[in-house]
Structure formats: C-alpha cells, structure tokens
Amino acid sequence: MRVTLVSALLSISPLASGLDISDAKDSGEWKVARDAPEVSSRDTTLWNRPAKRQSGWSPPSNLATPLKEVWDHCLNTYSNGLFGFKNYGWDQIKATEGKINVCVRWESSTAVTEAQRTQVATAVNKQYQKWFSWLYGYDNFPYSNIQVNVVGWAVKDASLLQGSTSSITVYTDTDSGGIPQCAEACGRFFHQDGDYSGCPGGSASHYDNSLWLTDGFSGGAGGDWGQRIGREYFMGALSTDSIHILLHEMGHTFGLDDFYDWTPTGISNFIMLAGSSSVITDFDGWMLRNWWYELSRNRGWQS
Fold first, then answer.
1. Distance (Å, rounded) from C-alpha 269 to C-alpha 260?
2. Do 213 and 110 touch, CB atoms closer than 8 A?
3. Strand duo 220-223 + 173-174: pairing
4. How many CA within 13 A on the CB side of residue 247?
5. Distance between CA atoms of 62 and 159, rounded to whole angstroms?
6. CA triple 16-21-23, angle to 5 deg
7. Residue 233: which of 22, 71, 30 has the closest Cα?
8. Which of 271, 231, 298 minimizes the C-alpha distance to 130?
9. CA 73 to CA 70: how far, in whole Å?
10. pLDDT tens-place string over residues 20-48
11. How far is Cα 86 from Cα 131, in angstroms, rounded to an integer?
12. CA nearest 113: which of 152, 159, 72, 81?
C-alpha cells in the first residue's frame, strides 16, 4: 500500500492530511534506469495520440488485462478509499481550471542564477507535458494546454537567488525541520478549501505543488504535495529530454502507484516501475487515462 499520511520524513505539517504514494524504496530502485539507454516511449500506431476527442474506455487489447489488474489493486489497497481523497493532481487542475503553480524548495546553500531558474521552470513544464499529452483530446478531458508555472522559490537566504527575482515570490520561511518552505498560507496542500486569504497576493499567488530540490537526496518521493528529488541530479539533467525520476514522482501526484512487490501481467518496463524505464511508456499513459476515466465519472467531471 502506498497511500499514507505524509510522514515526518517529508517534513510537511502533520496537521494537514495528504497523499504520499512513494516511499524510501525509491532510493534503491533507480540505479537501473539511471544507467539504462533511453528508448522510444511510443510505437507507430495512432491510438495513443488521438486526432479527435474520444469517449469511453478503449485501451489496446494487449494492455486491457494488466490495466484492470492495476486499477483493481489501487481500489483494494489505497487507504481511506481511493475516491475519498480529494487532493490528487486531478483535483488541483480542476480547481485552477487547467493550471499548476509550482513553488521550488531549494534545500541547498548553492547559489542559483536567474538563467538556471528559467531552465528549471522550462524543465518542470516539459516533464509535466509528457504526462498531459496523454490526456489532451481524450475522453472529454477539458483542457488542451495545462499551464505549469513556477511562481515561487523558498531558500535559506534570499542572496542565493542571483539576478532579478521580479517574476517570482521569494520565501525564506522554514518548516519544523528548518528546511526552506514556501509559505503555508499560499499552499494548496494546507488550504484545500481554496481559501488563500492569508496569502500575500491572494489566490493568484498560491502554489499547488512544491518541488523539493535537496542536496544529496537519493531517489525520489512524490504525492499530492508535489515531488522531491536530488538537487544535483535534477540540475544536471535540465537539458535531458526525460528526467525520469521526476516523471515517476509526477505520476504519484496524479495518483499512480508504485510496483515494488508485484508487476501486472506481461508488463515489465514502464516509468512507474522504478528502475525499469527512463521514459513514459504506452502502459504508463494508459494508466493515467484510466485514472481520468474513473475519477472524472466519480467526481461528475464528464461534460
């Protein structure tokens, strides 16, 4: 089971309930993917990139059985009921009408230039779009271009942010562990009712996810609160097409599970199986679509 209350390991306030689908096992599972050659995530068929809107659940026949196994496993193992949790990434983009605002938690004493911050924002958007490309035009998904914006940075000292910071909010708050934290008053995790009245700048300045970039952090973690990966790994991968650990953790933000103790029938290489693939595969994409198909009907989001 991967759904738990956010633990002290993540240094997030225990007063707010949250979803943390990854766990410490991520750290040991990534070596294979880190050294693996990158392979194509798409075949030559057209069903995975629909030219027009589709409705209903119609995965390729060779994926239907393992996809059902995965969904049934999620229904049976997610604590407190899969549908009862109301802060998946899906809920966040519905609340913002198709946007994700990100605040970076820079857990480092290394200075970061304005150009690097621009690269970070570009990379985060690019990785999220690799997931969202599976949803655009599929089964009444209401958005054709989800905007992913880095709106703030939390740092130990504002002097670490070199160059102009006029386009972002700078936070020097810390959590209970002394780790730089974007202001709780502005965070979706802490205000799932959408009340950002205590946030300077109000709702327009809120953030939905935190991206933790932590010195010396091995592997990754992910949940409704955002993602956490190693600073050195991420900054060294800014020009990489698929930042595979981040892609995996983004999958958790949208509810996708880990596969530490089992694998679906006939499927052994996909981004959510840590260490087996460096790219989002067709199976990953259809798992994401399965979530939209089921959750959108449960939530009443189908138009």
1. 13
2. no
3. unpaired
4. 32
5. 54
6. 105
7. 30
8. 271
9. 5
10. 666 544 544 444 333 333 333 333 233 33
11. 20
12. 159
C-alpha to C-alpha distance for 89 and 113, rounded to whole angstroms: 29
For the record, the structure tokens of 223 come out as 């949940």
SS (H, E, C) the chain: CCCCCCCHHHCCCCCCCCCECCCCCHHHHCHHHHHCCCCCCCCCCCCCCCCCCECCCCCCHHHHHHHHHHHHHHHHHCCCCHHHCCCCHHHHHHHCCCEEEEEEEEECCCCECHHHHHHHHHHHHHHHHHHHCCCCCECCCCCCCCEEEEEEEECCCHHHECCCCCCCEEECEECCCCCEECCHHHECCCCCCCCCCCCCCHHHHCECEEEEEECCCCCEEEECCEEEEEHHHHHHCCCCCCCHHHHHHHHHHCCCCCCCCCCCCCCCCCCCCCCCCCCCCHHHHHHHHHHHHHHHHHHCCCC
Q: Residue for token digits 């089971």?
A: 1
Number of residues assigned to the chain:
303
What tens digit of pLDDT does each residue of 72-109 get? 999 999 987 899 999 999 999 999 999 999 999 999 99
- Model pTM score: 0.87
**At 227, phi and psi to the nearest 5?**
-140, 155
Question: What CA–CA distance (Å, rounded) separates 238 from 113?
Answer: 14
Q: Show the tokens assigned to 278.
A: 């460096």
